Amino acid sequence: MLFWTAFSLALSLRLALARSGVEHSATASAPQGDLLFLLDSSASVSHYEFSRVREFVGQLVSTMPFGPGAVRASLVHVGSRPYTEFTFNQYSSGQAVHDAIHVASQRMGDTNTGLALLYAKEQLFAEVAGARLGVPKVLVWVTDGGSSDPVGPPMQELKDLGVTVFIVSTGRGNLLELSAAASAPAEKHLHFVDVDDLHIIAPELRDSITDAMQPQQLRALEVLSNGFRLSWPPLLTVDSGYYVLELVPSDKLVAKRRQQLPGNATSWIWTDLNPDTDYEVTLLPESNERLLSPQHVRVRTLQAEEAGPERIIISHSRPRSLRISWAPALGPDSTLGYHIQLGPLQGGSLRRVELPAGCNSTTIQGLTPGTAYLVTVTAAFRSGRERALSAKACTASGERTRDPQSVRPEARPPEP
C-alpha cells in the first residue's frame, strides 16, 4: 500500500502539470456555489467500498465554508431510483454536512446513473431543493464505473447548463465514456483511483472544486488547444437587453472577434482558436434598464503538440499478458517518447517501459493471473513537460505456468 500511495501521488503531480491557465481580472474570494455529490449506492458496490467513499466525501467537505452566502451541499444516491440523502438547504454548517454524510446508508438496487443524473439536473436548479440562482453549480460523481442506463446524454445536458462535472472512478469504468462525461480537460476533472487510495486525490480535488465555485462572474471552462467554453451569471433577460462578447488574441496579426447574444444567454463556446495563445475576453452587458459593468477574463489555450494520449485501449487480456494501445500516437517532432507504467492495485512491484515516439502499442507479459492493474501512459514532450492518462486493466484468470517474461514494445506500422 505504501508503494501504491507513492505511485498515485506521483501520478497526481504529473497530471497537475497539464492544467491550463485562466486569469480573472478580480482577486479570487471565498467560494460560493451549489455542490451536489452523486454516489453509487447500488448493489454493484460492496459495503466496504461504500464506507470508504463516504469517508472520502466527508474529507472533501471538511474544510469547505458552508452557509447561505457560501457553499451549500446536497447528496443523491444512485440506485434503482435516485434518492436524496439531504438537500442544499437542509444543513448550513460544515459539521452538519459532514455528520449527515457519515450516517448515510447504502441504498442497493440497480445502477441507474442516467436516471439519477436527470434527477440531479432538477435538484441543481430547483429552489424547493435549496438551489440558488446565479451561483456556480458543481457535480461530483463517485462511481465504480458501471451503469445500467446511458450516462452521456443527461451528463451533456448538465454541462450545457454550465455545471462543472468531476468524476471519481474506483472500479472498472470505460475510460472513453467517462472522459467524455467529465468536464474538459479530463485530466483535471476525471480521477481513476483505488478505493483505498481516495485520500490521495482529496486535496487536489477539493482545490479544483473550490476554484469552480468562486463568486460567479465571467469564467472559462473546458479549455482545449483550439477553444474554450465561457459561462457567466444571468445578468439580463431576453427583454431587458443583450450581450456583446469580444475576443482579443495576444497575436496582433489575428483579428478581434465579436459575438452578440440574447439577454437570456449564459454561455458561449469559442472555437477555431490558435493553440498556446493568450486571449483577452470581455463580456459587455447592454441593458436598457440599468448600467452594468463589463467583465473580463484572460485564457490561455493548451499547446496542441502537448495534447498527450486521449484514450487507452486494453485488449488481448490473457492470464499473464495485456496488450496496451493508445491514441493519438505522436511523432518525434513533438515528443521524446512514452513511459508505460503498470502496477497491481493491491500493491506490488511497479513495471516501467520506455518506448520511442511513434509507438502506439505494447504487450506486457509476465503478469499475475486474475489481477487488477493500473496502466499509465505518459507522453514526454521536448518542452520538458509530460501528459499522462491512466486506465484500469485486469488479467484473465488462469494457472501460473510460466516464468515472467520481458516487455516487448511494438512500433506502429507506417501509414501508407
The neighbouring-strand order within the major sheet is 4-3-2-5-6-7
Given the C-alpha coordinates, what overall shape results? flat
Q: How many extended strands?
A: 22
Biggest β-sheet description: 6 strands, mixed
Structural class: alpha+beta
Report the span from N to C terminus.
47 Å
Query: Helical percent range?
Result: 10-25%
Q: Which characteristics define this entry?
A:
disordered N terminus, 5-stranded antiparallel sheet, 416 residues, disordered C terminus, alpha+beta
Structural notes for this entry:
By secondary structure, the chain is an alpha+beta fold. It contains eight helices and 22 strands. The protein has a six-stranded mixed β-sheet, sandwiched between helices. The longest helix has 15 residues, at 2-16. Residues 1-21, 23-28 and 400-416 have low confidence and may be disordered.
Q: Can you give me a brief rundown of this structure?
A:
The protein is α+β, with helices and mostly antiparallel strands and 416 residues long. It has helices at 2-16, 47-61, 94-102, 113-124, 152-160, 175-181, 186-189, 198-212, and strands at 21-24, 33-40, 71-78, 83-86, 137-143, 164-169, 190-192, 219-221, 228-231, 241-249, 257-262, 267-270, 278-287, 295-300, 311-318, 321-327, 335-344, 351-356, 359-365, 372-381, 386-394, 408-411. A hairpin with a 6-residue loop joins strand 17 (335-344) and strand 18 (351-356).
What's the topology here?
Elements: H1 2-16, E1 21-24, E2 33-40, H2 47-61, E3 71-78, E4 83-86, H3 94-102, H4 113-124, E5 137-143, H5 152-160, E6 164-169, H6 175-181, H7 186-189, E7 190-192, H8 198-212, E8 219-221, E9 228-231, E10 241-249, E11 257-262, E12 267-270, E13 278-287, E14 295-300, E15 311-318, E16 321-327, E17 335-344, E18 351-356, E19 359-365, E20 372-381, E21 386-394, E22 408-411
